[in-house]
Amino acid sequence: MHVTYLFDPLCGWCYGASLALEKLAGLDDLTIELAPTGLFAGEGARPMDERFAAYAWQNDQRIGRLTGQVFSQLYRDRVLGNIGSMFDSAPTTLGIVAVGLSKPDKEVEALKVLQNARYVDGRNNSEMAVVADALDRAGFGDAASRVRSPDEPLLSAYRKRIEQGRRLMAEFQLDGVPALLADQGDKRRSLSSGVLFGGFDLLAAKLQAA
């Protein structure tokens, strides 16, 4: 089975869904395609301000209670507390795309690395330098080098991935991320995002029924 995962790396709910995503990635008979939507990139990016930081932290605590994912005090202090910095998912998405150009089977791992850098280690992965350093530390040296000096093939791949993600969102009339599309043969259908938070047995059952 082929599963498409629509996401944005700065989406707290996508971070909450990462445990389910990891389990899916470990299944032998299933392949996962990451489809970034650029929700918080480009026109979706914004400066961090106190109101948005407070809203994000409140939402993050809800996600943490539901999923068990860690939203650390370092994240609250250094990322949400960095008023005036950018909330922009383009650098992290670029990092994931860069990993995919050389190691396409490692994109889920790269996503985890970059999410943990933000939510656990309190590093602002809206900055290219932070993304490159996190990838370097995780053994993705080639991708880190490309992020530090983005070339046209990387930028072109980034644009195509975002366009594809947005096209799928529109085609399946999805109004938010995370979202899943499941393929079996020539049939493709969307699954409610709730299956990512209801336990792995439920998720597996829904996929089998797809």
From TrEMBL:
**SUPFAM superfamilies registered for this protein in UniProt:** Thioredoxin-like
UniProt GO molecular function? oxidoreductase activity
- Could you tell me which residue ranges the DSBA-like thioredoxin domain spans? 5-196
Source species, domain of life = Bacteria
Matching Pfam families: DSBA
InterPro entries noted in UniProt? DSBA-like_thioredoxin_dom, Thioredoxin-like_sf
Its name, as the record gives it, is DsbA family protein
